[in-house]
């Protein structure tokens, strides 16, 4: 076991999957869900050759500077705003994420949330559980339609395209999208999606879904000005990162009737949730669970383990680290 690379696993994944790392590495596997402080993350990275981390662990410049032997970070997740990519690159540390394996599961979740917001599913359940359902009535909990409406997608990567296909092919929706760059015709026609500018997307969407990466450039892309351009009957769904939305502005719009409802799987200060949102009836709140199917979480862990083995030059893919 001398001189085997050392790999830290920051959170419990699946034991049988993490075990595979032990064939190649000295593994420091976390057994309990842990809220690591930045100082503890830095301490764990010091002396490690690789680390499997989640969105909970911020891998910042300071921790990287102190990790002289670090060669690879495998992020268990597709979003990687928790990583200081520039600092990793400068040191030649390989960084990997888990795209593709979670695309369809996360697109499913986007639809679950969109439909829950449109059809007031969680609001209705709370109402029922409170014992307020005394008689079926014609005008109780009326929502908006999903089928045949206009679906807006902000961020048209793999997951955005999965949402577009569901909307167009499954629900007969008209699909509009905005993205940094327009997609090739073939993808557009497969998704039956039309490219529009940001303001048109805001103005025309009945259901707007956020699926774009979070960075300083996309911080609060949905602010009060953007919300004011949306239809008062529209819904907003966020399955990407909380920092994309100005939550105070969103709460004001939902309370003021300028937006019909919202569904949020991610929050700026998660796991804390803005109390203004918690106080509203017309917002669906879920605990960052977009990729949370058993099969997909297993696939994510497997891919992260494979990425680490390849990045540190072990296993069948030795010499071909993923980029
Ligand atoms: C992702 O894959 O980005 C999820 O948010 C979990 O990290």
UniProtKB/TrEMBL annotation:
Domain D-isomer specific 2-hydroxyacid dehydrogenase NAD-binding: 111-290
CDD domains xref list: GDH (cd05301)
InterPro entries noted in UniProt: D-isomer_2-hydroxyacid_DH (IPR050223), D-isomer_2_OHA_DH_cat_dom (IPR006139), D-isomer_DH_CS1 (IPR029752), D-isomer_DH_NAD-bd (IPR006140), NAD(P)-bd_dom_sf (IPR036291)
GO MF annotations, alphabetized: glyoxylate reductase (NADPH) activity; hydroxypyruvate reductase [NAD(P)H] activity; NAD binding
Keywords: NAD, Oxidoreductase
Pfam family, one: 2-Hacid_dh_C
Gene Ontology CC terms, in alphabetical order: cytosol
Matching Gene3D superfamilies: NAD(P)-binding Rossmann-like Domain
Protein name: D-glycerate dehydrogenase
Species assigned in the record: Luteimonas marina
